[in-house]
Amino acid sequence: MASDVTIFTDESVVCEGPIVPGPDLATWANGVGATLLEEAGLETTGPMDFPPRLLQAEYLSWVWDRVVRSLPAGVTVTTHLERAVSLTSGWGNRVELASGEVLEADLVVLALGYLDRVPTADEAALADSASSAGLTYIPPGYTADVDLSELRPAEPVIVRGFGQAFVDLMVLLTEGRGGWYDGCSGRLEYNPSGSEPILYVGSRRGVPYHAKLGYTVPGTTPVPTRYLTAEALGTEPLDFVTQVQPLVEKELTFAHYQQLFLAHPERTAWPWQQFFGVLDRTLPSSPEFIAAVNEAVPAVEDRFVLAAIDRPLAGLTFDDPESLDRELVRLIEDDLLRRADPTFSADLAVFNALLSVYSVLSVAITAGLLSDEDRVRHVETEWHGFFSFVASGPPPRRLEELLALHRAGLVRFAGPSLEVALRNDRFVASSPALPREIEARAFVEARLPRPDVLATPDPLLKGLLESGLLAADELIASDGTSLGGGQLKADGECRAIKADGSVHPSLFLLGPSVSGSAGSSGFSRPHFNGPGFRQNDAVARQLLQLVAVQSEKAGRRHAS
């Protein structure tokens, strides 16, 4: 929500500072930013609204301008709006731009976002086979950058992926092709332009991500973890499945039931302390705890069962596509109602617990407590997938649009555990939940590519990795299979670690593609002691200190 986005530090941020407060996105949009938004043709936003990206971009642009204007005399900022293509280091650093211009720098910070990557071997082989058969295959990618022109009006398109990448795809292929919505009849209806394809969408879960929560409850802010703590994890290497995952599940279970029992006691049959006593001494999977839930929490919708939340269609089969459609519509409609209803504030408590758990897992990874295999397979894949499914879904409006598109016949549901193969010059999709196959000329992988810095096509990073100025490992699982490239290596001060293991003294790395970086946690929330703020403050201070030392040395050389 707009009130949950800030780019400014506040009194909660533990850093040397100085703390420079400023408005969160909602406050800015209804204050100093209102005129800018009007000039840009954008509507303002309320504190509980989910602002579009263009509005957030205006906020970030305003913050940038404010920062530049606030710099003291003698400090200048020069922007070069082009790609940096190479970096060489000797006595200093030489950054070459795409135009051929060379910048000489004492210090360099690579503030890296999410990186493009070349297709995997399987994706490349499928693309070649599809091209030979005259088919359209769109591999994983950032949807806004993908060419969708080969997806033809009224033709079936198999889509695998039901998260944010799918939502972006859905918007581009409907409203982006001239269709529009209206709610005059009391519910949202879609008016097609005639240029839309028909999307058959499925995924591992077979259901869309949960809608974002549309309410706040006083007192339900992120709190320190109770069970998944640094003390509980210790200092020795851990097995994620047997040692970490049970604590994660217990943490989320505790958050859910504490909020349910204390905020909504009329829906429970036991006092909180009695129920907490069972939870505290057992695990959520234990028969004793399951029996306690069955007795103390009468309504099934008030219970927290992680496996059922993670895979709502697990084990279900449907006689025909219409039966699956009815179940999906019911799940989505129930989700929209629940995510707008503060009487289910236990969901908000779980959301906040997820944020706290994420922070602890990040620290465990940085401290080397998890193997590369556990990190990639269980944290970056399974855990991050669950986190995104529950806590990082679309605004409610997008799910309302999904239902409207389904009623218009432009989105159809293909089921869970969706498998797609190329057979007889057609893409064929199947799900174990349905006794039918879907054939289509076009197939879209609606998901982001798995991060792999060794597979990036970016010329700057490729050159730095090849020269040894940056390092990243090829990760190998215990069974000998490759897990792909890891993240770029950096030390605890965010300085680049070179291929020979030494630390680069003047090259710093930040962002989600960097080991130990706080840059993958998204926007910081007000009053939440954002890890990105803490890390950036420390790096900025180190940069200033290094510049001061270099200036002092230069002054002494000049004086002599």
From TrEMBL:
Residues in FAD-dependent urate hydroxylase HpyO/Asp monooxygenase CreE-like FAD/NAD(P)-binding domain copies: 2-114
Superkingdom, taxonomy of origin: Bacteria
InterPro entries: HpyO/CreE_NAD-binding, L-asp_N-monooxygenase_NS-form
Membrane spanning stretches: none
Protein name per its UniProtKB record: FAD/NAD(P)-binding protein
